[in-house]
Amino acid sequence: MSSTTTTATKLTLRIHAQLAAAHAAFVRANVRRAHALIKPPLRELSIAMVNDARMSELHERFMNIPGPTDVLSFELDHDDRGRVTAGEVVVCVPEARRQANKRGIPFRIELLLYALHGMLHLCGFDDRTDRGFRIMHRREDDILIALGFGPVFAAAPAPARVRRPTKRRNGYGGNRR
To answer: Which contiguous run of DSSP H or E holds residue 19?
Structure first.
């Protein structure tokens, strides 16, 4: 298990990676860079990289949806204006591997995409509507381009949207496909 704490431009970042530990430094460095680009009120972030079984358990518990998902985000603390200042992002490593293979992109980019997706949820982005979905993916591509990796979604055809339940218990679900 890898657990590291770094402080950058007012962000305390912890990554817990039993899986994909070899990619933790890459994710950490680029999440820090993305945070510096978007300058959110988010000051503490924990990213957990988990397997399908753990993600399925969390998905069922917090979203009442069986099976794994790609990303879950949890708001942990807010400022006096209601903005998230601390949160946790849970990334499903096997799902990232499956989707990276499907998209034909490097696995580490898909892991980073999931971490960014979760961080954007904590910053107020919501992809549960078609409009929000487009806005969020455009922002993810903008960040990936600014980081020097190029877009993931701009060149891809728009996926068919699956309507998600709106009932949520302290978590944002993923399943962006």
So the answer is: none
